Sequence to fold (412 residues):
Amino acid sequence: MKRIFPGYYIVAASCVVQATYLGAFFSFGILFPAFEAEFGWNRETISGAASLNFLIMGVSVILLGRLTDRIGPRWVLALASAVYGLGYLLLSQTHAVWHLYLFFGVLAGISIGADDVCTLSTVARWFVKRRGLITGIVKSGAGVGQSLMPIGVAILIVTFGWRTACVVIGLSLLAMVLVSLMLKRDPALLGLQPDGVELAPNDATELNSATAIPEHGISLREALKTHQLWLLCIGKFADFYCLMTIVIHIVPHGIDEGLAPAAAARILAIIGIVSIIGRIAVGTLSDRFGSKRAIQACFSLLFASFVFLQWLDNPNLLFVFAVVYGIAHGGFFTATSPSVAEYFGTRSHGVIFGTLVFCGTLGGVISPVLAGRFFDTTGSYDVPFLILTAFSVIGFAVISQLRPLAVASDHA
Fold:
């Protein structure tokens, strides 16, 4: 009987990691009202911890990507899971603002970048023919975690308090240390080629390192000389600017508009559920038409959702917004990894992917704090939402300039 391709086990493990990591991150927005009520902190202050988290992640993710390229994802992700879990366990003991910034901003920020760079760079090496679809399936795990964990955290907060909720999140992250041990850098380690093609016996016996089968692609240094990388970086800045504003502020906005806290939390849940559709659809679209078209489709949906967000006058319509936005949200997180492989190959996939994420995090660092400041100053999110609409147009225009590399992607 033909054995199951080990790559599918890696896909399953990656889904679990994605669900837990992203579920934990998105749950931070559920803690906003608790911090406001207990400590009297304003939204700009609380948002600052999320911005610091993104800044630290952006710096660390490049290093994590290079480590993943060189030593593989297993130990990188295991260490990151331990640090991430510790951050949430310590967050449960928060009594001062600097605790919030240290435990969530720094500790969680150092580790959360391992989520995408370890899982997506790994599956990009294990699959070629259906790389977009497989990436979408892995990122669907993030959608599941994003939709279920915030609801669970909200229930924990109501029943046991926010400190207990943080402990539960921390223990869930520590469990990812074991799950991460299932990941292997590439199929060459098992005498296989991508997509489950077995090597000839003579070739398989000679495999003793991840470099036994040369990987195609260009280095980060070469990629930095191309306009393709910089266009993708600008596009990633634009989409992260938009996504992080919504992730951090949509629940407080829903409460301001008249929704009960539990109902407002369901907005994130709907975004998470619908994002699963977006992740699969955009992954398939990327396989068929290329990552450029896939990213353009995401920016188009993002624009439509923001126009609707500024038009709606009934808080219940926020759930409709969540459906349209959720597709784009999931799609962006799926399209990035295949775009790196498509334009630059897989030889330095981790570090190039990390560079894109770093540029995205710059947008993610700025946007929550700016949105919080505008709200604290004006009492509304009108200006932040208008800025998001502008960025969705800018992102579409920039990505439209992408062209294939003049140098073949298999250049070594």
Q: What stands out?
A: The CA atoms of residues 61 and 113 lie 5 Å apart. Residues 203-213, 407-412 have pLDDT under 50 and may be disordered. DSSP finds 16 helices and no strands in the chain. Residues 6-399 form a domain with the Growth Hormone; Chain: A; fold (CATH 1.20.1250.20).
